[in-house]
Amino acid sequence: MAEKEWSDMAIELYDKLTGRGAEISYEFDNMEISIPTGTGDESNYALWKINGTLKIRTRDTAKGK
């Protein structure tokens, strides 16, 4: 069995929870992400900082139909 990337597993989990009133919550503590400002070896990077909670909520809008 091949190893899965964490992002693939997160997508599968989200797909299973969608429509079930689920909420996925991610908490970040001083996470830093370097985002390239262009392409190529000489690109500069913008530093994004995330500190707090990101919530993704789903709900089934087809209920009751």
Which overall shape is indicated by the principal axes computed on the Cα atoms?
Answer: elongated
Total of DSSP H or I helical runs spanning 4+ residues: 1
Helix-and-strand structural type: alpha+beta
Q: Order of strands across the biggest sheet?
A: 1-2
Main β-sheet: number of strands, strand sense, barrel status?
2 strands, antiparallel
The proportion of strand residues reads: 35-45%
Q: Which stretches are low in confidence, meaning pLDDT under 50 for 5 or more residues running?
A: none
First-last Cα distance: 40 Å
Average of the residue pLDDT scores? 75
> What fraction, in percent, of the residue positions are helical?
10-25%
Using only C-alpha atoms, the radius of gyration works out to: 17 Å
Q: Got a strand count?
A: 2
- Order of H and E elements: HEE
